[in-house]
Design goal:
Helix content is about 45%, strand content about 15%. With about 280 residues, it is an alpha/beta fold. The chain folds into two domains: about 210 residues, Alpha-Beta Complex (2-enoyl-CoA Hydratase, Chain A, domain 1), CATH 3.90.226; about 50 residues. Helix 1 packs parallel to helix 2 and helix 9 packs antiparallel against helix 10. About 35% of the residues are buried.
């Protein structure tokens, strides 16, 4: 890891064999997402993005639950659930800016060039769904419970679920979950495509599965994996023809890489390739 590894009271990070595991580490509060989380997450994601030794990232959680979502108690007197103050305009502006910072925190997961896998167990509520929607791949334990809960507390989900989930599970499923605020179990989440797979064994089971998937990803050329993430992201808002042109430009820049030479050499030598990301 680079020497500028951030520290946090609510997040921990370990790196092993090219795989970084970022852990929501506020188990005593069921990993409620408060100011420290929103401040620290983008610092962690930026540091991992810069670290050439990191090839894949797993986001997991300590304790019995992934996260119960937004820490409402952290808002104090900022306006949630309280009458409008005399300076309503200033308060509204402050809330708008605060929401923007929280949105940017979640978007830092999307912006990271490395693939990000969410390993979910227990409750994943509200802001937790915003967080996993920003990940590239989502896995769940069989005890996982998901909820786009905001409507039940008189809030419109505003950190990315309503924008990202339609592309993951479809507009109808998003509308059902967001309008009702209902809980769904891991099997329903798998059936609608919110998670790719479900594993027994709670946090340990899904954590092991996420690690195995990350190892599989990390074995590939980091240039190709990160390029694939960039091309997939670039497809948004583009026609098929525009997407094809984009990937053609991408490969014209990176096809003559050391990794491609290593892949061809390893094939003819009948051995696993050893990619360097160059």
């Amino acid at each position: 890891m680079t020497t500028d590894r951030p520290t946090s009271e609510v997040l921990t990070c370990s790196i092993d064999d090219g795989i970084a595991t970022v852990v929501l580490d506020r188990a005593e509060k069921r990993n409620a997402l408060g100011p420290a989380f929103w401040k620290d997450l983008p610092l962690f994601m930026a540091a991992l993005d810069r670290d050439d030794d990191v090839r894949c990232i797993v986001i997991a959680a300590a304790g019995p639950h992934f996260t119960v979502g937004l820490d409402l108690s952290s808002f104090g007197g900022q306006g949630l659930g309280s009458p409008a103050p005399a300076d309503a305009v200033g308060t509204n502006r402050a809330l708008f800016e605060n929401i923007g910072r929280m949105q940017a925190s979640v978007t830092s997961v999307v912006a990271c060039r490395k693939p990000v896998i969410a390993a979910v167990h227990g409750y994943c509520i509200g802001g937790g769904v915003d967080l996993i929607a920003a990940c590239d791949i989502r896995l769940a334990s069989d005890d996982a419970i998901f909820s786009v809960r905001e409507a039940k507390i008189a809030i419109v989900a505003d950190l990315g679920s309503l924008q990202r989930l339609p592309g993951i599970i479809g507009a109808g499923h998003v509308a059902e979950l967001a309008f009702t605020g209902k809980d769904i179990d891991a099997e329903r989440a798998r059936s609608i495509g919110l998670v790719s797979d479900v594993f027994p064994g709670g946090a340990d089971g899904v954590g092991k599965a996420a690690r195995e998937l990350a190892v599989e990803i990390a074995a590939n050329s980091p240039l190709a994996v990160q390029g694939t993430k960039a091309v997939l992201a670039a497809n948004d808002g583009r026609s098929v023809a525009e997407g094809l042109e984009y990937v053609a430009w991408w490969n014209s820049l990176y096809l003559r890489s050391d990794d491609l030479t290593e892949a061809m050499t390893a094939f003819f030598e009948k051995r696993p390739p050893r990619f360097t990301g160059r």
